[in-house]
Specification:
The chain is an alpha/beta fold. About 35% of the residues lie in helices and about 15% in strands. This is Ubiquinone/menaquinone biosynthesis methyltransferase.
Length: about 400
């Protein structure tokens, strides 16, 4: 039996299109079209993207290990602070009962072997080595270093003369032609000599003397050899400088009437603290430097800008001097002022406790050339000025 063909359904779109024209069912009310509304519509703001919300910081939980480390550190510093406080009080009480002489330089005989190890860390923290270098690099010509100690400045010397220019562009002779080291402690002088020999094995114009700087100091090795060759009847070979002479550490033998040799540069670092009469000592250094162009270079430590720090230095001064041979509470500025030397440059660091001075002798008013020439002849140099002064080295005389 054949089924009748199924009626085709209209397409969906056609059905929807014709649905509006479909007849209304009975009983349904007729739809009345709504009149358009005349109400004012609010103006909408232009579209803006919402700002990105800032992410709230994540709270971190306390690390137990970090908390333990902080607790241990707090305990350590509190314990160490208590130790320092107790030690300070004990040292102050000890200082009040100590009878320490002004001259404490003999302490260095005992501390010489361990001196460098004791001061290395403190000088590294305070960058004293950099200040030593800046000072010593200024040395020129025939140099004298008094209170040389263990030779902590040895590595900073610019040895050998050369032509150069100063900071103003003016031509000058730079570098050291010779270096003479002086200290009262033979143990320290020997350490300084060994340092110099290792650092500058080929430099021969260096002399090391164990003596007081207030006593007559021999001239540089080449000047001494030149003087001997002119005033002795020995063979010409005696005028040569040998290694043993230039590296001698014995006490020199000089006549009491011999005039002091005047060096081009005199250096002292950390030495005024150990002397019984630092004012007279510094005044004497003024007689050892060439009066026209010579300089005295000082790097010292002493009193501070601040009263509270000066009180600490005063309270511990006697105990520190008794152990280390250093009166660290001296007023270096006042010592320099009383010495009568002319201050070319001065500077302070470390709350005022570290002092730097560039000094030179004050020129006498009305000093004539005739008196200057007489002074040179009395010293035995006179016509040899070209040999003595660093600024005229290398000038050949006919």
């Amino acid at each position: 039996m054949v089924s009748p063909p199924s009626a085709k359904r209209p397409p969906k779109s056609t059905a929807l299109k014709n649905s509006g024209n479909a007849p209304r069912a009975k009983g349904m009310p007729k739809q009345i079209p709504m009149a358009p509304s005349h109400r004012a519509r609010p103006n909408r703001p232009p579209y803006q993207s919402a700002p990105a919300q800032t992410a709230l910081p994540r709270t971190r939980s306390i690390n137990p290990k970090g908390l333990t480390v902080c607790a241990v550190a707090a305990f350590f510093f509190s314990t160490y602070g208590t130790y320092l406080y107790v030690t300070y009080n004990k040292t102050v009480e000890k200082s009040k009962t100590l009878s320490v002489p002004d001259n404490v330089s003999d302490r260095y005989h005992k501390t010489a072997p361990t001196y460098d190890a004791e001061v290395d860390m403190a000088e590294w923290i305070m960058r004293v080595g950099k200040k030593r270098e800046e000072l010593v690099k200024r040395a020129r010509g025939n140099v004298l270093e008094v209170a040389c100690g263990t030779g902590r400045n040895v590595q900073y010397y610019s040895l050998g003369e050369k032509r150069g220019r100063d900071k103003n562009g003016k031509a000058e002779i730079q570098g050291c032609r010779s270096v003479t080291f002086v200290d009262q402690s033979h143990q320290m002088v020997e350490i300084a000599r060994e340092k110099f020999k290792k650092m500058h094995p080929h430099f021969k114009l260096a002399a090391f003397w164990t003596q007081d700087a207030m006593a007559p100091i021999p001239p540089p090795p080449h000047i001494a050899a030149l003087q001997r060759s002119r005033h002795s009847t020995l063979d010409n070979s005696n005028s040569n400088i040998n290694d043993n002479e230039s590296m001698s550490t014995s006490t020199p033998e000089m006549g009491a009437q011999q005039q002091p040799y005047q060096f081009d540069t005199v250096i002292q670092t950390m030495g005024l603290c150990s002397l019984p009469d630092p004012v007279s000592y510094l005044t004497h250094l003024g007689t050892l430097v060439e009066p026209e162009r010579g300089e005295i270079l000082l790097l010292e430590h002493g009193r501070s800008h601040y009263r509270w720090l000066n009180k600490l230095l005063d309270d511990l001064a006697a105990a520190h001097a008794d152990r280390h041979g250093c009166w660290w509470n001296r007023d270096i500025g006042e010592i320099v002022r009383q010495s009568g030397l002319e201050i070319v440059e001065s500077k302070r660091w470390h709350m005022g406790t570290t002092w730097k001075f560039i000094l030179r002798p004050k020129k006498r008013v009305g000093e004539g050339q005739k008196d200057l020439d007489l002074s040179e002849k009395e010293q035995g140099y006179g016509e040899d000025k070209g040999v003595q002064g660093w600024f005229s080295w290398g000038v050949k005389k006919s």
